[in-house]
Design goal:
alpha/beta; Rossmann fold; 4-stranded parallel β-sheet; 46% helix
């Protein structure tokens, strides 16, 4: 909740919800995303944005999106499937399930449990659920924020995104990194959480100023 309050005090209208796959609505709701990342959870978020924008008459030309870990995955997925947001910040994210399988300290079982395949069994299934596959569709200015020593969501996930994004014409990508792991930064390192939030805010403002 710290990040929400941080951006609210900076003048942003912060909106957030519980999409399919999150906690709070029972086990079936939480597990419904397993094997279906980027499907109904993505739709939930887009429908929520539509609802809030309409209900509170928000400016559709000033929508921004950010998230970390799974939220970083979803940020990557969102900007490769819609151009409705004017800027995005993806933090400690997943972009490529194929490489994530063998590099994350969460263990090799996680990708199989969540996506339903191993690289040597069904490579296409992992690739189809990887935002990197769809990066050619991206039109949204992006800040990639990742830590070099994040072993949960390894730095190579950010490097994949930055390389591919940089090769796309007429798109801008900023890349900020820090040494220490970010996946638990708010819980175990509040100062690191504040630094990360400041970088995120600065990145959004910089991207907004350029466009």
């Amino acid at each position: 909740m710290f990040e929400f309050q941080f951006f609210a005090q900076a003048g942003f209208n912060v909106i957030f919800c519980n999409p399919r796959g999150s906690s709070g609505y029972g086990e079936e709701f939480a597990l419904s995303v397993v094997g279906h990342y980027g499907e109904r959870d993505y739709q939930d978020l887009m429908e929520f944005v539509d609802y809030v924008v309409s209900k509170f008459n928000l400016d559709r030309s000033k929508l921004y999106v950010t998230g970390g870990s799974y939220g970083g995955f979803m940020t990557n997925w969102i900007i490769t499937h819609t151009d409705r947001f004017q800027a995005a910040v993806t933090q400690r994210s997943i972009s490529n399930w194929v490489s994530f399988y063998g590099t994350s300290d969460i263990g090799y079982h996680f990708t199989y449990d969540q996506i339903g395949s191993r690289p040597w069994e069904n490579l296409d299934k992992l690739w189809d659920k990887s935002p990197l596959k769809y990066v050619k569709n991206a039109r949204t200015p992006l800040l990639i924020h990742h830590a070099e020593m994040d072993f949960r969501c390894p730095i190579e996930q950010a490097e994949h995104s930055s390389r591919h994004y940089a090769n796309l014409a007429a798109k801008r990508c900023l890349y900020a990194s820090q040494k220490r792991g970010m996946s638990f930064h708010v819980q175990v390192n509040p100062r690191g959480g504040l630094i990360g939030s400041n970088r995120c805010l600065s990145g959004l403002r910089a991207i907004r100023a350029r466009h």
